[in-house]
Amino acid sequence: MYYISAYRKTIVFKNLRNSFPEKTEAEIRKIARGFYGHFSNLMVESIMSLTLSRKEHLRRFSYKNPELLEEIYAAGKSIILVLPHYGNWEWIVNMECISSFHFLAIYKPLHSSAMDRLFIKLRERFGGETVPMKQSLRRIMKAVNDKEQTITFFLYDQRPRKNEMHHWLNFMNQDTPVLLGAEKIARKTGQTVVFFKTTRIKRGYYENEFIKMTDDPAGLPMYELTDSFFRIVEDMLNKTPEYWLWTHDRWKFKRN
What we know:
By secondary structure, the protein is an alpha/beta fold. The chain is 38% helix and 21% strand. The strands form 2 sheets. A 7-stranded mixed beta sheet has the order 1-9-8-2-5-3-4. The chain has a two-stranded antiparallel sheet with strand order 6-7. β6 and β7 form a beta hairpin.
């Protein structure tokens, strides 16, 4: 991936140099090699997910404090779960096995219909439900009206479209437009917002932690939840940057 295919190598190095201006070129190359090694593993792990048993899946992708989910469930609330493209975000689908909630995965349909069908199969393997991004609000409001308790997960570090760039912040030393969908939906529905933090233990093994951000999103100043999300992600990247998705052209657009 690093030496032969050079997949999005220009974007990766641009992102790393701009995010870590204090690092030497040798340090940047070391992070890049670490990233491509992890990215290669990530593709293999995604394919493995089709054949891993439920028990083996939970052994490799374990949860540090699942009792937090049950406490929120017992309180009669639903959850907006926010996470970055860090570690192995595809394996989060096994969360349906450790909680009483119904799992909703918000996703952006892929251009390739074959790949889209494959990833839907992966994400729904343990009983979860994939929801296209454009239908997310309608599906969440249906769950609210039906009193169905759900965990809706948002990969929240994606680049917004041009017409969605309503809030900017400083993230990884760069002026960054951010999505606001999860925060807006949380404020509208009053659902508990939880950050999903992943730690890579070794190749093919991750430990995950649920960090409650708020039970009352509407009670916080606008943008506070989104800003807090990116502060947590930035701290993770400063410690172990190689496990984030650096191939994404995150900073393609500049503020006009």
